[in-house]
Every structure is written in C-alpha cells, then in structure tokens.
C-alpha cells in the first residue's frame, strides 16, 4: 500500500480550494514606531518621537487574514461597536481578498482597539494602550451571533474559534457552534482563552500555548513527557481528538487521544515580534487540516508559518510563497556545499540536524538524465522530511547496473545537477550497487522510492523500520524513463 505524500505545491493547491469558518474577537491593531532619546520634563517617562504608524486587522481578524493569505477562503464572523474603529475594520475587511466578513454590531460596547508604541531602533514594545470592554456579549447579541454563524457552517470545510476573551465566544455561542458543526461532520479547532476547557467540549483540537496549558492543567508542562501526561485528563474532559501545545522557541507538541505524541521543533529564526504568532499557527493548522492532511504535515506547516510571522514586525500575515521559501529554502546551501566528499562530513551534518530535532529523509538513484519523474520523487521526498539526503550511484556502480555505455554524465555532473535542486539538501555518492550501507549509516526517519516498487522491494526498508522510520512510496509519472531518453538521443527506439 502506498503512503500518501503532501508535497508543498500539491498541498498549496488543495488549500486554495478550502473554506475556513473563523469566529472570534476582532480588534484594531495600531503600531506607532519611533525613536526614544530623552525623558519627559513633565514626568519620569520616555518620550517617543513618532516617525510612522501602521494599522492592522487584529485579534481573530489576524487569523482570518492569515487564512486568506495562505490561499484558503475565510468566512469571518465577529463583533464590532458602532464607532470609528469598527468602521475602519469593516472597510479593511471588505478590501481584503479571500475574506467574507459577517460582522454583528453591538452599539453598547466599543470595538476593541490596541495601540502599541514601539522603539524603531531596538524593536522593543514600550507601551500599549487598550480600548475595550472585555465582558461577555449580552443575551441579545449572543442570539445575533448564533444566527449569523449557523447558516455559514454548511459552506465551510473546517471551523476555527479564536478566543481572546473579549466577549464573542461565550459558553452559549461555543456550545451552539460545536454541536452544529459535529452534526455536519465538521472539525472544530479552538485557540482557547478560558481555563475551563469543559466549555469547548466536543472540539476536535485545542491549541493553547505552554503558559495557558500549564495553568489549565496545573502542571509544569516543560517537557514532552509532562505535557503528554497532563493532556490525558483534559482530553477526556474536553472530549477532543488532540491537544497542541505551542512552546515558542521550543517548538510545538501535539498529543493525540490515540497514538503517540508528536513534537515539531521550531525553526531557527531571528525574532523581531511575536505579536500574532499564535494567530498564524491557528490559521495554518486550519487551512492544512481542511485539506485532509495528517497531524504531522499540519504541524510542520504551522511551525514554518510561525517562523515567518515572528521574523516580521507587527501582527503580520504569512503568504503561501513565504511559507514555501521557509519549508523549501532556495539557498540553504550553495550547490557545491551540498555534495559530500570529505570523510566524516556526512556524520557531522547528520549530527547537527538531529541536534536541531530535524527529521532526515533519504532516497537514491542513478539520476543519469534528470527528468520530471525524478523531480516529482525528490520533491515528494523533501516534503516528507525536514532535510533530504540523496544517495547517488557512482560511475562504476552505474556501469555495472546499466551497461558499459552508461552513465551519460559522470558522477560529478550528476551530483551538481541534483545539488542545484531546492528539494535536495545533501548528495552522497556511493560505490556499491545498492545504498544499503549508506542507509544503515544514516538511519533516516523517512525512506522514499517511486511507486513502481513495493515496500519489500525497497532496499533498506527493514533497517529504517527497525529504527522507527517510515517507508514512503510516491506515485511515478508515467512516460518518463532515462533509458528511453538515452535511446532516443542515440537514434534508437524508445
């Protein structure tokens, strides 16, 4: 049986055809940037010389922005006041491609607005001013919210509740949404704020940060083991499929109700601003899970999206193109640096990757004349891991396997072509007829071959599975063959 693989481009196309219903607390985020060079003569307070300002759709609105920027369609239901901030948000949402907003107006409360003063030079938040009424919506407004939400459910592939505890997601609204979604077979993701997770009972996935999880479970939540242990009781209480705990620079840990915990490390990145990183994670999870992707794929997408978001200032959105560059970096290494020649270089690189918690994948071949079939396998292989090592048959090995007139290109030329591909992280030339020794040395987490093999025919499958790894078979593109290309070029038959 072949294991399905989500390569990034296929996944991005699938996301583009999905709709996420996002419900939560909408805010107007304002950022005032400037320099501080003196203390006010009126009081012992720094004076910021304002140089520029930015306004963004914030709170659950930032989740909606990220859903749309990743390529999915977002139906967004939220609450605004009858004021200037509410009018500005209505206009901004109407101008944002990919978002269909359904805004309920409550004249009795202000639209939540947050103004942050930021030192431009140090990228430091100095002060935040809030205008808000963090109280549950009235019974009348609750009914209006429910009436606005329920007709949208059949149109959505997945539901996301973004709770900032500003009054939209009351216990009554939450209960109506989750119950209705479950009847329609829709999964519900909740980014929770309440420590009483019983109100989210029946949701598919809860996504607290480490602090929220520790407070809700009264646990330390500082290791995968402690998180896994503490999650069991609350999963039963909340009747959910899984809990995902985001842990900032320590990555994210998912504990499913069935199966083993999955931990995804964070990307090494220079952090400029963590505002809205949780929104980006929730959006990426919703958009990815809406396609039917598994937990592992969805977590790696969310981790990459968070890494892009924290590298920007303000409540930033992440585009599919930015996410692609993070997952498949164009210049991770120069091509010549990807070819392993020095003894011990492979072991050193593998040790470094594993120290970072990265999953290493492996595939192999002669790659004499690179064609689209090869590219598909390599791209799918890279999508199934964090770093891909490609084993390349040496010239002597190819001659033994293919005949004295092969290879057409020598091993150095073939290695350089492979190394130029963004999907490939390392190329290792091996002299034997099979890569079994190389696989035994590497012990990859993922071993990938074309779907014209069966699992038992894949060299090294037993070594990989014995070490806890996985064998992935990728559907091949019919009509592409190096041998046929060579024969055609030499004037022979195909």
UniProtKB/TrEMBL annotation:
SUPFAM superfamilies listed in its UniProt record: Nucleotidylyl transferase, Ribokinase-like
Keyword list, A-Z: ATP-binding, Carbohydrate metabolism, Kinase, Multifunctional enzyme, Nucleotide-binding, Nucleotidyltransferase, Transferase
EC nos: 2.7.1.167, 2.7.7.70
Catalytic activity: D-glycero-beta-D-manno-heptose 7-phosphate + ATP = D-glycero-beta-D-manno-heptose 1,7-bisphosphate + ADP + H(+); D-glycero-beta-D-manno-heptose 1-phosphate + ATP + H(+) = ADP-D-glycero-beta-D-manno-heptose + diphosphate
Pathway the protein acts in: Bacterial outer membrane biogenesis; LPS core biosynthesis; Nucleotide-sugar biosynthesis; ADP-L-glycero-beta-D-manno-heptose biosynthesis; ADP-L-glycero-beta-D-manno-heptose from D-glycero-beta-D-manno-heptose 7-phosphate: step 1/4; Nucleotide-sugar biosynthesis; ADP-L-glycero-beta-D-manno-heptose biosynthesis; ADP-L-glycero-beta-D-manno-heptose from D-glycero-beta-D-manno-heptose 7-phosphate: step 3/4
Residue ranges, annotated region (Cytidylyltransferase): 362-494
InterPro entries registered for this protein in UniProt: Bifunc_HldE, Carboh/pur_kinase_PfkB_CS, Cyt_trans-like, PfkB_dom, RfaE_dom_I, RfaE_dom_II, Ribokinase-like, Rossmann-like_a/b/a_fold
Residues the record marks as active site: 279
Renumbered residue ranges of the record's region Ribokinase: 1-333
One Pfam assignment: PfkB
Carbohydrate kinase PfkB domain ranges (all copies): 20-317
Binding residue positions for ATP: 209-212
Residue ranges occupied by any Cytidyltransferase-like domain in the UniProt entry: 362-457
Domain of life where this protein originates: Bacteria
Stated family: In the C-terminal section; belongs to the cytidylyltransferase family. In the N-terminal section; belongs to the carbohydrate kinase PfkB family.
Function: Catalyzes the ADP transfer from ATP to D-glycero-beta-D-manno-heptose 1-phosphate, yielding ADP-D-glycero-beta-D-manno-heptose.
Subunit structure and binding partners: Homodimer.
Name of protein: Bifunctional protein HldE
Organism of provenance: Bradyrhizobium iriomotense
